[in-house]
Specification:
The protein has 208 residues and is an alpha/beta fold. The chain has a single domain, classed as TIM Barrel, CATH 3.20.20.70. The chain is built from ten helices and nine strands. The protein has a four-stranded parallel β-sheet with strand order 3-2-1-9. A three-stranded parallel β-sheet has the order 6-7-8. Helix 2 crosses helix 3, helix 2 (21-33) runs parallel beside helix 10 (192-207) and helix 4 runs parallel beside helix 5 (93-102). The protein is globular and about 45 Å long. The two termini are 23 Å apart. Bound molecules: 3-phosphoglyceric acid. Residues 15, 42, 67-68, 130, 156-159, 177-180 line the site of 3-phosphoglyceric acid (3PG).
């Protein structure tokens, strides 16, 4: 099953920001137990690649990708660590080309029509919409979707259980991403049952 097929079943991508591979694996297992299996590990800590490869090895039912990929070098490293997809906050040709040459899906961030059009001309049809709640939210996505008819968006940034349904109601939305599913205090205190409950809540919202 492709990532996009998996996302059309459960259209939520939880973010993991971790500095410890054991905690990252426990977090991924907790998310999976709540029904979310496409997981993004953000490249914002020195240990992020280790966390990603640990999840790829120890949680085989998850599809794990790398987020906050800023450069072609980071993209190559993430792919080498087992990343099945890449996410960037913005659009950069070198990062996109590196991913395309490796045959790994890349979801770069866009916030304006010009950025969507630039990405479209790079051959991309699935884009992150970031930071979703600050750059116009669901009304902006509706407007973008009416013009770019074959583009699907992954709104991320300020998405939560409170507005998830508003985004998912739009035809142009493939899935939503966010860190609200992995609160740092719960993760760092080992309260993984809370992560599972948040994931299950999001999965339930997505089914309605
Ligand atoms: C990202 O990396 O996409 C953002 O940090 C996600 O934003 P959020 O923390 O508001 O979910």
């Amino acid at each position: 099953m492709t990532i996009e097929q998996r996302l059309s079943q459960t259209p939520v991508i939880p973010l993991i920001q971790a500095s410890d591979a054991t905690i990252a694996v426990q977090t991924a297992k907790a998310l999976l137990a709540g029904g979310l299996s496409v997981i993004e590990v953000v490249m914002r800590t020195p240990e992020a690649l280790d966390c990603l490869s640990a999840i790829a090895a120890d949680v085989p039912d998850a599809i794990v990708g790398a987020g906050t990929v800023l450069s072609a070098v980071q993209a190559q490293r993430a792919i080498g660590a087992g990343s099945k997809f890449l996410v960037s906050p913005g659009l950069h040709a070198n990062v996109v080309e590196t991913s395309q040459e490796a045959g790994v899906p890349i979801y770069p961030g866009v916030a304006t029509p010009s950025e969507v059009q630039a990405a479209w001309n790079m051959g991309l049809r699935t884009l992150k919409f970031f930071p979703a709640s600050l750059v116009g939210g669901a009304p902006m996505l509706k407007a973008l979707g009416s013009v770019f008819r074959d583009v699907k968006f992954i709104p991320t940034g300020g998405v939560s259980a409170a507005n998830l349904a508003d985004f998912l109601a739009l035809d142009a939305v493939l899935a939503c991403g966010g860190s609200w599913l992995t609160p740092a205090d719960a993760v760092n205190s080992g309260r993984f049952n809370e992560v599972t409950a948040l994931a299950a809540e999001a999965a339930a919202i997505a089914q309605t």
